[in-house]
Amino acid sequence: MVLYLNSLMVLFLLQFQNCMAEEEKKDITPSSSPILNQTPPSATITALTINSTQSLLNTSDFHTTISPTTNFFTSPSHIGETDINCSEIKHKIVFNPGNNRVSSGIVTIENIPKVAENLTLNCTDIGTSQDIMISQDTPYAFNFTKPQCTKLSVMCDFINKSCSTPFSFTEMIPLNYRNFNLSVYEGQNSIRFEWDGKELLNTCHVKENYTCIEQNNPTEEYRQDDQTRKVTNLKPYTEYICTAMLTYNGTVINTTNITTQTKAAKPGPIRNLYCKPSNTSIYVTWEAPEERNGPLSGYILSRQLDSEKDNVTLQKKHHHTFKNLEPYKNYTVCVKAFNREQNITLYGEGKNIKCNTTEGVPDKVTIVSTTFEGNNIIRIKCHLQKEKLKGPKARFQLEFHGGKPKKHEECDFQISDLNYLTTYTFKINVFNGVFSGPSQIVTVTTKYNDKALIGFLVFFIVITTLALLLVLIKIYKLQRGSSRQCEILPLVNQDDEKQLMNIDPIPVELLLDTYKKKKK
């Protein structure tokens, strides 16, 4: 719109000049007007005088110096003359040599009509609304500086005479710059290309083409994704030979070949995970993943038991032994590979395996209570936590000297028919199906036999009573016989005294030992 208004302004000024010239001509007589011998005092034009083509080469941009004026007549002799036929006027553009992103050159106006050879030409750059005054010096030319791939639109007309049709032309400044530098940014599955002058490439509608082939497999070719500057669907940590090509107006202006490598990515899962357990260790082996996607920096192993977890990092080994484990426990072992890319660790998918440690030796049982069910009957209760069994089942065993071993599913033993007042040593342990644990020692002394003692005392009392009765009866008989013969016989018969028995006292301990022997 601005260009159009500028054009209308130029036409308006030219038309205004013609009208003013017609009015002044009416007031001028050839014989008496002094105006013919003088120049209008208010009109002064300083135009760009071009003496040679070489002087234009040293100018870098449009330059116009115009002094204020009320009209553009340089001589009254041209007022009112017929419009000039500008249809034969031609232009010629010569670009200055160089490899810059901004083009410069010279525009030469040719085929100027003879009637206009001494006139000043006013050209306007429509894009910038800048005027260029070109004098009648030969050649009619001006220089320009324009960004490449932009339009140079110029409208020209003579100052004192107008063209019947204003002379104008529009030229596209071509792309002459060739020194585009390519940068490459690698991803895990893609390669992105960047040119240092991508804005100029976009402006000039340069066609970009990117292809990559795998260095070790040249049969596979990967091309850019749509119109982006990126080649996708590549393999991680793989070397590629890539070609970047720029085409302008059907001509290849730049071809750059580069060899690069995509970044490392997460490795795939490991293969053939295997474990071999013992009662206190697990030996684990595996094979490297099929998809390494990088240098395969190492492996991370973890073994887990309930909430307890232990991690181990290995570099290049494919085996490891977890030690100091608990017997008969269900461990979960996880192994995953990883790659390192700069300061980032990329972990692959982990692979798990469940591994049970074998049976171990159980711990000692814990004695809960020892009680007497009788003076020679003992009951012993014990306990063992399940995690200390270290095996699939529990069978408790009791052994003691002089008795048969006892085996129970529960640790609850009752031992009867023991000797009285005897000290016994009991050994209790647990068998888990494979191993027997250490024995827990229990020492107990039985009590005396209260029933036997009472029986003995009863027997002793009965015997003693009977003995006393016999003595009393004997005394009675002796007294009765002596009363009958008291006068004739002496009180004590010497023969009867000889017939009496002497009874020695019997110790209680002897009677108790005799009783025990009878019981056995």
TrEMBL record:
Q: Which PROSITE patterns match?
A: FN3
For this UniProt record, the keywords arranged alphabetically read as follows: Membrane, Signal, Transmembrane, Transmembrane helix
* Gene (name only): LOC495208
Does the keyword Transmembrane helix feature in the UniProt annotation?
A: yes
Signal peptide location in the record?
A: 1-21
Name recorded for this polypeptide: LOC495208 protein
> What's a Pfam family this protein contains?
fn3
Q: Name one GO cellular component term.
A: membrane
Q: Where is the chain membrane-spanning? A: 452-473
Q: Which CDD domains match?
A: FN3
**Originating organism:** Xenopus laevis
Superkingdom of origin organism = Eukaryota
